[in-house]
Design brief:
The protein is α/β, with parallel strands linked by helices. The protein contains 10 helices and 17 strands.
């Protein structure tokens, strides 16, 4: 498989570099899934870093497949060229843990956290140019969040990769996700060709590439690389159990006193949480956060063992102990350990492949969905009014 950069990417990137040299610009990148939003964001960022000494800021609002963090996180990073090392570096300046990979699940939380991270960018003295990478949901609530992000950021340019929807009018006030007024100066709208992936598409049964990853596979890869940056992007470790996956020196054991930390369950039905909260997270993935002003994301962790005196966590190898010392809370979100969620097996009678979903103990979710039950997640724009007016 090879990836080919369309010709118009080079022309548009050069045009944006020239504008950024005259003064900081804000660029929002939108488009549906798998058209190359993240690839163009990286492409443009590197072009800008080669010409601008102060570096470029990137706001990652794609919480399903983010570039610099595991899934479930919105972040602001600063990418610059380190002249002493002669290489590009990226530093996380701000990050918030959502605990979801689809903005339609909790659109108001998604936009509020996105607003907080954007405010962190605005608080930086003499902040340079900003590139905003959006999620890949271009209809329903996804379209509404695109509009809201554009209204919040007030970009100079909107780069739209692909042609699945026309230019957003951005004339009528957004009714449900934000109370912000429309931008007084409309952004320039630039359509771009999607990235070219040189392989046969489709499933293996129809002659497609058997190694082509789905969106869920990419999310798992980003999640796994957070703990094991040494791994090659293969599907071999997707079937690994935690004992084989978390091995020294690639992962570290960290012990904490549960009496000194908060334990949060943002998606649990009852505000009190489960009856035995600490036991409810054993064997699951959680987020570690620090509350120094706004709540900042530190890292994901795997809860190895829980007792009344201590909680044993497995953390990534590149997390500084000084950062861990700022931890004030553990958050159980909706980002799960993939191999524990679904296990494939062969039926002994038919020899057919099947998938069995195993529900973890104290599985946390804010609704119990079912056919015609009315309890499924609201994912259309028409549902936003009902959700906003509903009592918390």
């Amino acid at each position: 498989m090879s990836i080919i950069t369309p010709d118009d990417w080079h022309d548009v990137a050069e045009k944006l570099v020239e504008r950024a040299l005259a003064g900081p610009i804000r660029v929002v990148i939108i488009g549906i899934r798998n058209v190359g939003k993240s690839s163009f964001g990286r492409f443009l960022t590197l072009k800008l870093c080669q010409r601008i000494d102060s570096g470029i800021f990137s706001l990652e609002t794609d919480c399903g497949q983010p570039d610099n963090t595991p899934p479930g996180v919105i972040s602001l990073s600063h990418r610059f060229h380190n002249k002493s090392l002669d290489r590009h570096q990226s530093l996380i300046k701000s990050s918030r843990y959502l605990g979801i990979v689809n903005p339609a699940i909790e659109p108001f939380l998604y936009m509020e956290e996105g607003r907080q991270v954007f405010n962190d960018y605005r608080a930086i003295p003499n902040a340079g140019s900003l590139i905003v990478n959006c999620h890949g949901y271009g209809s329903g609530v996804g379209l509404e969040t695109w509009e809201t992000i554009i209204t919040l950021v007030e970009p100079h340019v909107v780069v739209h990769i692909g042609n699945e929807v026309g230019e957003l009018s951005l004339r009528e006030p957004i009714q449900y996700l934000t109370d912000l007024p429309r931008p007084s100066n409309p952004a320039e709208w630039i359509p771009l060709s999607p990235i070219i992936v040189n392989h046969t598409s489709g499933s293996p049964s129809t002659g497609g590439d058997p190694n082509q990853a789905s969106g869920a596979d990419y999310r798992w890869i980003k999640f796994a690389e957070h703990f094991r940056p040494d791994l090659v992007r293969k599907n071999t470790y997707k079937s690994a159990n935690p004992r084989d996956f978390f091995v020294y020196p690639y992962c570290r054991l960290y012990t904490i006193d549960p009496r000194k930390l908060q334990l949060k369950f943002p998606f649990f039905d009852s505000p009190e949480g489960p009856s035995k909260p600490w036991e409810a997270i054993e064997g699951l993935t959680v987020a570690l956060t620090a509350e120094s002003g706004p709540i900042q994301f530190i890292c994901m962790a795997f809860v190895l063992h829980v007792s009344t005196q201590s909680v044993q966590l497995i953390i990534p190898p590149n997390i500084r102990i000084s950062a861990m010392s700022t931890m004030t809370a553990i958050v159980r979100g909706d980002v799960n350990w993939s191999p524990r969620d679904r296990v494939s097996y062969k039926n002994k009678t038919t020899n057919a492949e099947s998938t069995c979903a195993y529900e973890e103990a104290y599985f946390l979710h804010n609704v119990l969905g079912g056919d015609d039950s009315g309890a499924n997640q609201a994912s259309s724009r028409a549902d936003l009014k009902r959700r906003r007016l509903s009592p918390p």
